Amino acid sequence: MADREPGAPVADALTLDPPDDGGARYWLTRFNPAAKLVAAMVLGLGLVPAVDAVTGGVVLLGVLALVPFSGLDRRTLLVLGGPFLLMGLSSGLVNYLYGVEGLEGAVGAAVRLLAIALPGLIAAAGSDPTDLADGLVQRLGVPERPAMGVLAALRLLPLLADHWRTVTLARRARGLEAGRNPARMAALFFGRMFALLVRAIRTGTLMATAMDARAFGTGPRSRARHSRWGTGDTLLPVGALLLLAAAYALSARLGTLVLLFS
Protein backbone atom coordinates (compact mmCIF):
# COMPACT_ATOMS: atom_id res chain seq x y z
CA MET A 1 0.00 0.00 0.00
CA ALA A 2 1.35 3.40 -0.93
CA ASP A 3 2.27 5.75 1.91
CA ARG A 4 -0.25 8.52 2.57
CA GLU A 5 0.88 12.00 3.52
CA PRO A 6 0.16 12.72 7.21
CA GLY A 7 -3.03 14.73 7.63
CA ALA A 8 -4.24 14.04 4.12
CA PRO A 9 -7.88 12.97 3.68
CA VAL A 10 -8.64 9.26 3.44
CA ALA A 11 -9.59 8.43 -0.13
CA ASP A 12 -12.27 5.83 0.60
CA ALA A 13 -14.41 7.91 2.96
CA LEU A 14 -16.42 11.08 2.57
CA THR A 15 -15.17 13.66 5.05
CA LEU A 16 -15.73 17.38 5.55
CA ASP A 17 -12.90 17.77 8.05
CA PRO A 18 -9.81 19.52 6.65
CA PRO A 19 -6.37 18.05 7.34
CA ASP A 20 -5.34 18.43 10.98
CA ASP A 21 -1.88 19.80 10.28
CA GLY A 22 -3.07 22.61 7.97
CA GLY A 23 0.39 22.46 6.45
CA ALA A 24 1.81 24.44 3.57
CA ARG A 25 -0.01 22.34 0.99
CA TYR A 26 -3.43 23.03 2.51
CA TRP A 27 -2.82 26.68 3.36
CA LEU A 28 -6.40 27.63 2.47
CA THR A 29 -7.60 25.81 5.60
CA ARG A 30 -5.83 28.43 7.74
CA PHE A 31 -8.35 31.13 6.85
CA ASN A 32 -11.39 31.83 8.98
CA PRO A 33 -14.39 30.01 7.44
CA ALA A 34 -16.37 33.25 7.66
CA ALA A 35 -13.76 34.96 5.46
CA LYS A 36 -14.02 32.16 2.91
CA LEU A 37 -17.81 32.49 2.90
CA VAL A 38 -17.58 36.26 2.37
CA ALA A 39 -15.13 35.71 -0.51
CA ALA A 40 -17.50 33.14 -2.04
CA MET A 41 -20.41 35.58 -1.71
CA VAL A 42 -18.36 38.31 -3.40
CA LEU A 43 -17.65 36.03 -6.36
CA GLY A 44 -21.19 34.66 -6.53
CA LEU A 45 -22.97 38.00 -6.39
CA GLY A 46 -20.39 39.61 -8.64
CA LEU A 47 -20.99 37.04 -11.39
CA VAL A 48 -24.76 37.51 -11.43
CA PRO A 49 -24.72 40.37 -13.99
CA ALA A 50 -22.27 38.64 -16.39
CA VAL A 51 -23.63 35.94 -18.68
CA ASP A 52 -20.65 35.49 -21.01
CA ALA A 53 -18.27 32.57 -20.83
CA VAL A 54 -15.05 34.57 -20.45
CA THR A 55 -15.96 36.37 -17.21
CA GLY A 56 -17.21 33.22 -15.52
CA GLY A 57 -14.38 31.18 -17.02
CA VAL A 58 -11.66 33.39 -15.55
CA VAL A 59 -13.25 33.17 -12.10
CA LEU A 60 -13.76 29.42 -12.45
CA LEU A 61 -10.13 28.85 -13.44
CA GLY A 62 -8.97 30.99 -10.53
CA VAL A 63 -11.07 29.01 -8.06
CA LEU A 64 -10.04 25.66 -9.57
CA ALA A 65 -6.42 26.64 -9.01
CA LEU A 66 -7.17 26.83 -5.27
CA VAL A 67 -8.79 23.38 -5.03
CA PRO A 68 -5.47 21.50 -4.39
CA PHE A 69 -4.84 23.78 -1.41
CA SER A 70 -8.34 23.57 0.08
CA GLY A 71 -7.90 20.27 1.92
CA LEU A 72 -10.66 18.57 -0.09
CA ASP A 73 -9.82 15.15 -1.49
CA ARG A 74 -10.93 14.27 -4.98
CA ARG A 75 -13.67 11.86 -3.89
CA THR A 76 -15.32 14.38 -1.59
CA LEU A 77 -15.12 17.05 -4.26
CA LEU A 78 -16.63 14.70 -6.83
CA VAL A 79 -19.47 13.58 -4.55
CA LEU A 80 -20.41 17.10 -3.42
CA GLY A 81 -19.66 18.83 -6.70
CA GLY A 82 -21.33 16.24 -8.91
CA PRO A 83 -24.84 17.74 -8.57
CA PHE A 84 -23.53 21.21 -9.42
CA LEU A 85 -21.70 19.82 -12.44
CA LEU A 86 -24.90 18.13 -13.55
CA MET A 87 -26.85 21.36 -13.08
CA GLY A 88 -24.25 23.26 -15.08
CA LEU A 89 -24.37 20.80 -17.96
CA SER A 90 -28.17 20.74 -17.87
CA SER A 91 -28.32 24.54 -17.87
CA GLY A 92 -25.96 24.68 -20.84
CA LEU A 93 -27.98 22.09 -22.74
CA VAL A 94 -31.27 23.90 -22.14
CA ASN A 95 -29.77 27.20 -23.22
CA TYR A 96 -28.30 25.59 -26.33
CA LEU A 97 -31.59 23.98 -27.35
CA TYR A 98 -33.99 26.80 -26.48
CA GLY A 99 -31.86 29.93 -26.04
CA VAL A 100 -31.15 32.63 -28.60
CA GLU A 101 -27.38 32.84 -28.02
CA GLY A 102 -26.55 29.39 -29.38
CA LEU A 103 -23.43 27.56 -28.26
CA GLU A 104 -21.80 30.67 -26.83
CA GLY A 105 -24.75 31.34 -24.55
CA ALA A 106 -24.92 27.69 -23.50
CA VAL A 107 -21.25 27.60 -22.51
CA GLY A 108 -21.63 30.92 -20.70
CA ALA A 109 -24.59 29.66 -18.67
CA ALA A 110 -22.83 26.44 -17.67
CA VAL A 111 -19.54 28.12 -16.75
CA ARG A 112 -21.30 30.90 -14.84
CA LEU A 113 -23.26 28.43 -12.70
CA LEU A 114 -20.14 26.42 -11.88
CA ALA A 115 -18.14 29.57 -11.10
CA ILE A 116 -20.85 30.68 -8.66
CA ALA A 117 -21.25 27.28 -6.97
CA LEU A 118 -17.64 26.13 -6.61
CA PRO A 119 -16.39 28.89 -4.25
CA GLY A 120 -19.25 28.24 -1.85
CA LEU A 121 -18.59 24.51 -1.98
CA ILE A 122 -14.91 25.00 -1.14
CA ALA A 123 -15.75 27.46 1.64
CA ALA A 124 -18.26 25.12 3.28
CA ALA A 125 -16.72 21.70 2.69
CA GLY A 126 -13.12 22.88 3.11
CA SER A 127 -13.74 24.25 6.61
CA ASP A 128 -14.19 22.55 9.94
CA PRO A 129 -17.96 22.62 10.62
CA THR A 130 -17.52 23.82 14.20
CA ASP A 131 -15.17 26.62 13.12
CA LEU A 132 -17.67 27.53 10.41
CA ALA A 133 -20.52 27.80 12.93
CA ASP A 134 -18.34 29.87 15.28
CA GLY A 135 -17.41 32.20 12.43
CA LEU A 136 -21.02 32.60 11.34
CA VAL A 137 -22.13 33.60 14.84
CA GLN A 138 -19.14 35.60 16.06
CA ARG A 139 -17.92 37.24 12.84
CA LEU A 140 -20.95 37.51 10.57
CA GLY A 141 -23.59 37.96 13.25
CA VAL A 142 -25.74 35.03 12.12
CA PRO A 143 -28.32 33.95 14.75
CA GLU A 144 -27.39 30.81 16.63
CA ARG A 145 -30.28 28.63 15.46
CA PRO A 146 -29.47 28.75 11.71
CA ALA A 147 -25.74 28.57 12.49
CA MET A 148 -26.25 25.41 14.53
CA GLY A 149 -28.43 24.10 11.71
CA VAL A 150 -25.53 24.57 9.29
CA LEU A 151 -23.21 22.79 11.72
CA ALA A 152 -25.63 19.89 12.10
CA ALA A 153 -26.14 19.59 8.33
CA LEU A 154 -22.41 19.48 7.62
CA ARG A 155 -21.87 16.90 10.34
CA LEU A 156 -24.68 14.75 8.96
CA LEU A 157 -23.39 14.62 5.38
CA PRO A 158 -20.70 11.96 6.04
CA LEU A 159 -23.23 10.01 8.12
CA LEU A 160 -25.73 10.02 5.26
CA ALA A 161 -22.99 8.98 2.84
CA ASP A 162 -22.22 5.99 5.07
CA HIS A 163 -25.93 5.16 5.28
CA TRP A 164 -26.19 5.27 1.47
CA ARG A 165 -23.30 2.82 1.24
CA THR A 166 -24.94 0.55 3.84
CA VAL A 167 -28.29 0.55 2.02
CA THR A 168 -26.56 -0.24 -1.26
CA LEU A 169 -24.62 -3.16 0.23
CA ALA A 170 -27.68 -4.49 2.06
CA ARG A 171 -29.77 -4.55 -1.10
CA ARG A 172 -26.96 -6.14 -3.02
CA ALA A 173 -26.73 -8.87 -0.36
CA ARG A 174 -30.46 -9.53 -0.88
CA GLY A 175 -29.89 -10.00 -4.60
CA LEU A 176 -31.47 -6.69 -5.64
CA GLU A 177 -29.29 -5.92 -8.63
CA ALA A 178 -30.21 -3.89 -11.70
CA GLY A 179 -27.83 -5.57 -14.10
CA ARG A 180 -28.03 -3.76 -17.44
CA ASN A 181 -31.71 -2.92 -17.16
CA PRO A 182 -32.04 0.92 -17.08
CA ALA A 183 -35.62 0.81 -15.75
CA ARG A 184 -34.60 -1.54 -12.93
CA MET A 185 -31.59 0.63 -12.20
CA ALA A 186 -33.77 3.75 -11.88
CA ALA A 187 -36.25 1.94 -9.63
CA LEU A 188 -33.51 0.73 -7.30
CA PHE A 189 -31.93 4.18 -7.22
CA PHE A 190 -35.14 5.91 -6.18
CA GLY A 191 -35.74 3.17 -3.63
CA ARG A 192 -32.37 3.91 -2.04
CA MET A 193 -33.12 7.63 -2.18
CA PHE A 194 -36.39 7.08 -0.29
CA ALA A 195 -34.60 5.03 2.38
CA LEU A 196 -31.99 7.77 2.72
CA LEU A 197 -34.73 10.43 3.00
CA VAL A 198 -36.45 8.50 5.80
CA ARG A 199 -33.15 8.13 7.66
CA ALA A 200 -32.37 11.84 7.21
CA ILE A 201 -35.78 12.88 8.58
CA ARG A 202 -35.43 10.61 11.61
CA THR A 203 -31.91 11.81 12.36
CA GLY A 204 -32.89 15.45 11.87
CA THR A 205 -35.87 15.08 14.20
CA LEU A 206 -33.75 13.52 16.93
CA MET A 207 -31.10 16.19 16.56
CA ALA A 208 -33.67 19.03 16.65
CA THR A 209 -35.17 17.56 19.84
CA ALA A 210 -31.73 17.31 21.43
CA MET A 211 -30.90 20.92 20.49
CA ASP A 212 -34.20 22.17 21.90
CA ALA A 213 -33.52 20.25 25.12
CA ARG A 214 -30.22 22.12 25.39
CA ALA A 215 -31.99 25.47 24.82
CA PHE A 216 -30.17 26.42 21.61
CA GLY A 217 -31.24 29.82 20.34
CA THR A 218 -33.29 30.76 23.41
CA GLY A 219 -30.87 33.32 24.80
CA PRO A 220 -27.24 34.43 25.12
CA ARG A 221 -24.73 31.61 25.38
CA SER A 222 -21.08 31.48 26.36
CA ARG A 223 -18.44 30.69 23.75
CA ALA A 224 -16.25 27.62 24.06
CA ARG A 225 -13.88 28.92 21.39
CA HIS A 226 -13.02 32.31 19.96
CA SER A 227 -13.25 32.73 16.19
CA ARG A 228 -9.99 34.38 15.19
CA TRP A 229 -9.77 36.92 12.37
CA GLY A 230 -6.38 37.91 11.03
CA THR A 231 -5.01 40.13 8.30
CA GLY A 232 -5.17 37.27 5.81
CA ASP A 233 -8.88 36.85 6.49
CA THR A 234 -9.42 40.48 5.50
CA LEU A 235 -7.29 40.10 2.39
CA LEU A 236 -9.10 36.99 1.16
CA PRO A 237 -12.37 38.79 0.19
CA VAL A 238 -10.22 41.58 -1.27
CA GLY A 239 -8.46 38.97 -3.41
CA ALA A 240 -11.84 37.64 -4.54
CA LEU A 241 -12.84 41.17 -5.52
CA LEU A 242 -9.61 41.61 -7.48
CA LEU A 243 -10.18 38.30 -9.29
CA LEU A 244 -13.68 39.43 -10.18
CA ALA A 245 -12.41 42.78 -11.43
CA ALA A 246 -9.73 41.06 -13.53
CA ALA A 247 -12.37 38.77 -15.06
CA TYR A 248 -14.57 41.71 -16.04
CA ALA A 249 -11.60 43.68 -17.35
CA LEU A 250 -10.36 40.83 -19.53
CA SER A 251 -13.83 40.13 -20.87
CA ALA A 252 -14.38 43.81 -21.69
CA ARG A 253 -10.99 44.04 -23.37
CA LEU A 254 -11.73 41.00 -25.54
CA GLY A 255 -15.17 42.38 -26.40
CA THR A 256 -16.98 39.32 -25.07
CA LEU A 257 -18.62 40.90 -22.03
CA VAL A 258 -22.38 40.38 -22.03
CA LEU A 259 -24.44 41.73 -19.15
CA LEU A 260 -27.66 40.17 -17.96
CA PHE A 261 -29.89 43.16 -18.70
CA SER A 262 -28.03 44.59 -21.69
TrEMBL record:
Keyword Kinase: no
UniProt keyword annotation of Endoplasmic reticulum present: no
Residue stretches spanning the membrane: 37-65, 77-98, 105-126, 235-261
CDD domains: EcfT
One Pfam family this sequence matches: CbiQ
Subcellular location: Membrane
Annotated Gene Ontology cellular component terms: plasma membrane
PANTHER family with a match to the protein in the record: PROTEIN ABCI12, CHLOROPLASTIC
Protein name (database record): Energy-coupling factor transport system permease protein
The organism of origin for this protein: Nocardiopsis flavescens
